[in-house]
Amino acid sequence: MAGPNNGIVLYHYSFSPFARRVLWYLSLRGMDYAECKQPPVMPRPDLSVLGVKYRRIPVMSIGRDVYCDSRIILRKLEELFPEGALGASSPEEKAIEKFLEIWNIEAGLFTRASQLIPTSMPLLNDPKFTKDREEYSGRPWSKEYIAENRPEAVAAIRSGFKLLETTLLADGRKWVLKTEKPTLADIEAIWTFDWLNGLKGALPRELISDKGYPKVFAWIARFNNVLKAAKAQAPKPASLKGDAAAERILNASFVDKDLGVDPADPLGLQPGTEVEVFPIDLGTQHHDQGRLVGLTEDEVVLSTQAKGKEVRLHFPRTGFRIKAVTGGAKSKL
Q1: The domain 5-83+237-324: what is its CATH number?
Q2: How confident is the model over 144-169, as pLDDT tens digits?
């Protein structure tokens, strides 16, 4: 891929669980990339300058293509950098990998995990943080609300530990797909559990520990050991300020293929239609608008403008709504 650091700029902040999925992937592959650190709360002017309204982290650009949502980021890293990819090869393994992604994200396992944030966490004393997260999630972030929902969340997460202990890891395998090294399937399976394990006070250790789930906790420790070694060997990411990141992106070329607009898509949208795209689970108030240039079973692509240059925003279909814009401002190309 042309350009410095493989043409990759990753927008993230250090304690984002979703960003860690991508950071792990890059480290395990030893990939060179640049990063642009973001504040954990809105606003994020570094992304606004690219015309991005989407508020979730991470966001990754590869050239002048901008990918919103960790699921599509990982998929594109697999597609655009196939040599040394971490994804499964056989149809059966691909199904396991995909179902683990769905289990953690779309089926709500991580949502339950987020309800185990300890009420002693200093950020919960910051009104700016709690207000931002209430706007993002559409639910209260008071300590009282968190405490009230904790028992149900513990039950759901304990069930998740049991599932891994008694199924995928039950035969003593080192990695989910019985590989020599961790793969994308391990990342898809482990990130929620690893995050909770490292968040002091999140897990009730009298119920969830290596005594009750020895295989899961051994797997987490094994993964972190491999990850630590991989990070030590991987190139150190270049750190970019927002203006330098934007300049690099806007002066780059497009790297992704032209998907076209599926004429048989159930939405019945035509190429060039002005549309808006927004998530329907979290961060729903932040809508990106642009000209529709790509629509498949898995992906939607918008053409937008930033500083007089075209930028293409890519989103997954699952969890996002696509609506034609009637009236109002149009994207000028």
Answers
A1: 3.40.30.110
A2: 999 999 999 999 999 999 999 999 99
